[in-house]
Structures are given as structure tokens and as C-alpha cells.
Amino acid sequence: MYLRKPIMTILKVKNVLLMIAGVFFLFAGAYNIIDLLLYYRKDLETALHAKAMPGSVEWVKNAIAMILIATVSRKLMGDARFYSSYFEGSIEGRISFRELSNVTGKPVFVVAAELFFFRFIYMKKYSFTTIDGSKKIELFSKRTLCECRNCGAPVDKRIYFAGTCSYCGSSDVFAKILAGEKFYSISNEIDKGVDRPDYYQGKNVEAKRNLFIALFIICLGVACILGFMILDSVSKYDNKNYLREKLLDPSTKVHSYDAIQAELISLCVFAGILLVILIVLAVRRLFKLFFVSEAITCAGFFAKSKKPFIEMETVPSIKGKGGKRMGRLRGAIRNGYLSHCTLEMHEEVMKVALAKKIVKDTCPSCASPIVGAVDESYTCQVCGNKIMGVIEKK
Q: Bridge-partner residues for 345, per DSSP?
């Protein structure tokens, strides 16, 4: 609803193509540079002025630019998707920058800069306003009606965020929202998650945890092997006995000390490149392992709740441990290791919204599809009820 979907699709394809081209040109350019430096290692002036050197350097520079553009663009598009889903889940129509800062863990000025930039490329249907000296995001033409499905009573927004109806005590509270000419409803399916940790876990989370542990161990093991290979090659570079034995070995095809030393340097360079890549991969796996472990812990706690909103400070893995653990929970949600839950700010308190369900363009009374533009007096053509009217009592 708040995303420019055609543009997002084009940019997604662009990022894939840029990443493929960037990786190809980076390896090709780096290989040519290393090959020239090794071949002319005793005459670096010649290597630097070789005909192929300027072109190879340009390849590497352009490749790095392509990879950076694709990486930054993917991150920004992910942020835009998060903001869009958060806007859809809001029933207030106005959201403060500080609220988004607390939810995302980013400074206020970063959130403001992103949303200002996103209006021109990724997102639409919001503006900036100042209310009582506080800068806020105003969503275009958003009107909300909160109700209780169990007794049919209208529910105040503050009561809605508490998660229970003040008349009958039911947790089956419900919000109907008209945004522009589009209708959607927000309800919760908290009963589906009670005593079911798997409901709040992403797909194959347990298998992913085992896979990340295995990959982390493999990366470290191979990195150690490469490190020993580099140290061994360095120790042999000026070892006269080794060089003599290698030169006299009939199975080898080298005929000079320079050729043997060139092979050792080449081995060190490529082993070093692989070592750096493996270290980066190992660190990434370690962070993902933290996120997955946090997801499994939190899913078990969420499954014990029968209310649709939980205060962040009551989550056992976060309680008394500050922002570090909160960052892990954000990472678990962002990477899809936790599902059916989101972070929200209500009454200046950070909460986890559980089992929230957003249904678009569907009548809340009979679940029939709504086609075309709607307004507050729109009547369902199937059941005859006003979509923004009070729902029938059970």
C-alpha cells in the first residue's frame, strides 16, 4: 500500500544484475593485477606500467562500485518494506520519528533521512508534519474503527493496544482501516500460537541453527588450514635447502629459484584471499546463529502468552540485559527467523505484537472480496453491511 511496487521490482532485478557483474569484474580485474605483480615482482615499475594494468584497475574500481550500490540498495529496499508494513499496522494515522527510532534501533536523524529519501523512489502516501512541537509522519487519509468481535462493542484505541475488550474481557479485538480508497482489517489469531512455539518460529529454524553451527565450524577449520599453508609457504620462500630440493626434483617443471618463489607467492596470495572470505563468512554465520538462537528462545516465551501484546522488558532474554539483546530480537524478526510477531511502540512503551493478521480488500462481515475504490459509506454487495459499520454480535 505504501510501496511503489513496479519501481521496487525493477530495482530488485537491477541489484541482482549489478551484483553478478560486480563479482565477475572484481575477480577478473584482481586476478590480472595479481598476475602482473607476480610476473614482474622484481621490477614493479614495469608491472605498474604494463598495458593491461590500467584496465584491470578500472575493472576493480567499477566492480566495487557495483557491489556497493547493489548492497546499499538491497538494504534500503528492506528498510522501505519494513516501514511500509509498520505503516499498515498503525491505526493512529500519525507516527513519530522517535517511535520508529525505538522500533528499528536507528538514530532519529537516520530514520528521518531514509523516509525523506524513500518518498522519491520506494514509497508513497505519507507526508511530514509537526504536532505540538513533535515531528511526525502523517499517513494519507487514514481512518480507523476498533471493535470487539465477541460482543460487538466499539473499542477505544488505547484499550485495543492493551489487547482485551473492557466490556467482555475478550482478546478478540479488531480494527477496520480505510486508507485512501483502500480498505483492510487488522485482527489477531493469538489462539493459534498458544503452547505452539513453532507458530512463532520461521521456517526450518531448528535446521538452520544446526546448519549455521556446522558452517561456522567448517569455515574456521578451513581457515586454520589456509593459515598454516600461508605460514608454511612464507617459511619456504628463503629456505635454500627447500629451493634446491624442489629444483632438483625431476617431477617438477620449474627450472629456476625465481619460478619456485613465484609459485609460493601465488599460493600465499590466493590462500590469503580465501582466508579473508572465510573469516567474513564465519562472522556472518556467527551473527545469524545469535539471531536463530534468540528466535527459538523468544518463540517458546511467546507461545505461553494469551494476550496479543507483550511488553518488551518482560521478554526473558531481554529483561535486564539492555539494547544488545534487543538488537538480536530485531535481527531475528528482520531475517525471518521469528514470524507472526512485530515490534511496536504504544503509549511510549515498546511492545511485541503477536499473531497480528492484516487482511486487505475483504469484507469483515462475510469475507467476500472488495473490488474497486471504497469510502466510509461503502456497502458490501454480498452481505449488505457497511464495511466501516459496527460488526454483528456473536
A: 350
> Is pLDDT of 96 > 80?
yes
Alpha carbon distance 349, 99 (integer Å): 9
Q: Is the pLDDT of residue 390 over 70?
A: no
- More reliable by pLDDT, 205 or 246: 205
Cell readout for 166 is: 473492557
Which of these, 224, 232, 226, lies nearest to 264 by C-alpha position?
232
pTM for the model stands at: 0.73
Beta strands in the chain (DSSP E): 94-96, 126-131, 134-139, 142-148, 173-179, 182-188, 309-311, 341-346, 349-354, 356-360
What is the secondary structure of 192-207 as a DSSP string? GGTT-HHHHB-TTHHH
From the centroid of its chain, how far is CA 145? 32
Question: For the chain, which residues make up each domain, given as ranges?
Answer: 5-138, 199-354
Strand-pairing partners, residue 360, are 184
Q: Helix 257-302 to helix 5-39 angle, to the nearest 10 degrees?
A: 150
